[in-house]
Amino acid sequence: MPCHGMQSQRPRRFRPGGTDDVPLLVRVLAGNPATSAAILGCLDTVDASRLRRLYPAVAAVVAGVPWADMATPVVDVMRWRAALPAAVGARVAQLLIRRLAPPALAALAGTTHLDLQGCGFVTDELLLGLPVSLHTLNVSDCYSLTRNARLVHLPALSALNCHGTRVVDGGVAGLPASLQELDIAGVRLPARASLTHLACLRVLRIPGPLDAVMLASLPPSLLELHAASYRSLAPGASFAHLPVLHTLDVSRTDIDDASLASMPSSLVSFNAHECKNLTPSAVLPPLPLLQLLDVSITGIGDALVASLPVGLAELRMSYCRNVTVGATLDHLRALRVLHCIHTHLAPAMLDACRARGCAVLRVSCAGTGTPFTHLRYWQTAGWRVVTPPARCGCGMWRRAGEKRTWSLIPVVRWLHWRRCRTATASPPPW
What we know:
Blueprint: H1 24-30, H2 33-40, H3 45-51, H4 56-63, E1 68-74, H5 77-83, E2 89-92, H6 102-107, E3 113-115, H7 124-127, E4 136-138, E5 159-161, E6 181-183, E7 203-205, H8 212-216, E8 224-226, E9 247-249, H9 257-261, E10 269-271, E11 292-294, H10 302-306, E12 314-316, E13 337-339, H11 347-355, E14 359-361, E15 363-365, E16 396-399, E17 405-407, H12 409-418
């Protein structure tokens, strides 16, 4: 029994109809693990800093959450770690206090996701002090890094973004073999560099010079290859050694008909936009899983149209002047979106596509003999049907079969000037 004048230490219980000094939010956040996890999962570290001051019990719950907020910049790593001891991800601010001195680097222990984008204080020596627990690292635009930078001491690193740096100027030997995703856009790989030791690679973004040696050294586990460049992939480049390739972007490269014939059957998304070496004789190999194909601004013809897989959902085939009115899309029953700007397909066939539920984006241009004479918009929201004056001096386009159209910026500005002043609703979407 407690002595006279001493209060019992028995925990307070909530009684219906009685008074309780514990806020309901505190009970939800700190009293029920299931509800607290659901709510805290919708918050970021900015909200967490306020919640910590709400109630001691809430502060304890917030401290135990493995925060991975990669949007809120951290300006002081020491204070960040003291406030969120269980955090596993951080985006370091470019104007960081203490510039990641040894104590700050020690505070990053246990971190799995780290974003150092644009931090000029990141050097080759600093990389050696990063925690070995890192899974994802972004050092893009860290201009102080040199070709001598090494990351092989990070055995768990699976994703690396070194866009706009010199990290791989001497090759990829300094990168860990555990990498599964690599972004080296805007860098200069040495000629005939080999990527053989990156055997776990699944996603590669290399919109720069990709020669035959680099392509042949890619591992068979690759799922995505983004290699769009004006200086990449010579004619005859083969992709047959990538049996599980899912997404391929080789737009504006020099691939030719032989390259097209080597595409693996696993492709789902294929972008060959502006590949000028493709000819009217080009055909696709059997690609039963293909959903998206972009061959705009190429020399493909009716032969490729006939070889399109029946399961294709979106086809981008604009400015393909070698495609004739004899081309047919009747076998593409699953097609849902068709871009055929300035591609001479038969109007009857396009009508048949629309009847099957396909959205046909066919643009007509003023001055090309089409019946297009004015720019028509929805006649709601106070907009008038107008005819732009000749002084606009620019082309205007419309989507066939639609009431709304799109134009170049000068026409848009002129239409804003002509908008009815009594309108209360917003203009139509673009």
